[in-house]
Amino acid sequence: MPAVIIPEPPPIPKWKRPAKTEQELEWADIKVIDLSKFDQPGGRKELAEELRDAVHHTGFFSVTGTGFSQDEVDRQYDIGQAYFDLPLEEKGDRRYRCDFAQGNYFGYRAANEKTIMGTDVKDNVESVNIPKFIPANENEPFHPYLRQYQPTIEDFSRRSLELASKIFTLFSIILELPEDYFSRRHLYEDKSEDHLRYMIYRPRPLEADARVENTWSRAHTDFGSLTLLWSQNVAGLQLKTPKGEWKYVPPVDNGIICNVGDTLDFWSAGYLKSTIHRVVRPPKDQAHIHRLGLFYFVRPGDTVDIKPAPSPLLKRLGLIDEKSEDAAPVSGLEYVRERVKNYHNHNDYADMKGKKFRVGNLEIEDQAD
Ligand SMILES: O=C(O)CCC(=O)C(=O)O
Ligand SMILES: [Fe+2]
């Protein structure tokens, strides 16, 4: 039998990590958790205790000791950058775009197609969302350019959820639930709207930014369960503190910034906090940079019910009662698709301050600042 020859993917330029800002900014206090302790005796319990305050109060924290080397992470940036450097006709091929009318976020989202905040200033974000590598996703958009690098991307995608799974274990311990309570609702082999994402913000002229209050991504909470955001040096991401102040999320070398999304907030009756955040024009010394980001968005499994978990802690705190368990559940897929439609299926990313909407019995306030 002739040997199967797998072609080498085309070589691509090395992406260069931008330097940190020298500007004095108001940084948020971000807890750093060393996940290399996870498998040591007593390690999980210790980590869960270290994490408790951070997830309860700010919903943002960072992890190190993740098992991803800097080279592996940078390789993902190389691939993302190379893809975004393709001509729009190629990267934006209709067959591989997000279908927002269906609330389907897999595939490519182009910049400059929507105006923002009721002005004629255009949205400056491009992204590509890569579905999990499971048979059920075979027909979901995955651009052939990216497919050339599938072994590297697939490995990264699988390991991202393995990492998230450790964090879910810590959340389960915090809530006194069986350790696998959340991880089994987020299995790689089960269909869900999870995606690995490359995302790039293109700088806009100062005057254009001024007309939209320097907004690059409007204030929001994340739709899914957990977001992994590989730490990056271009300042711009801000979270809203419990006191209502906007603070910059600081870079954490070799770390991943994690934030709790709305589904975990629902499951924990608000104990695990899904925090409002936004992205603004970077400081002067970084304002010219095309800000490339790398993420893994964990969504609930399609068939998983979203309703408060039977946590002894939440019961003691009076956050749930017997009735909570009888609540009519909303499924993961129904919920996520509705969120994506509500957010993206418009010609304008309007100012959504104070607007609420419902999916089943879940009340969502997309922008609450
Ligand atoms: O670009 C960032 O740093 C954060 C983006 C973000 O919040 C999101 O895409 O949900
Ligand atoms: Fe977000």
UniProtKB/TrEMBL annotation:
Give GO terms for biological process: small molecule biosynthetic process
Q: Where is the Fe2OG dioxygenase domain?
A: 192-300
Coiled-coil stretches are none
One example GO MF annotation:
metal ion binding
Task: Cite the InterPro entries for this sequence.
Answer: DIOX_N (IPR026992), IPNS-like_FE2OG_OXY (IPR044861), IPNS-like_sf (IPR027443), Iron_ascorbate_oxido_reductase (IPR050231), Oxoglu/Fe-dep_dioxygenase_dom (IPR005123)
Q: In which family does this protein belong, per the annotation?
A: Belongs to the iron/ascorbate-dependent oxidoreductase family.
Q: Tell me what this protein is called.
A: 2OG-Fe(II) oxygenase superfamily protein
Q: Which organism is it from?
A: Lophiostoma macrostomum CBS 122681
Show the taxonomic lineage.
Eukaryota, Fungi, Dikarya, Ascomycota, Pezizomycotina
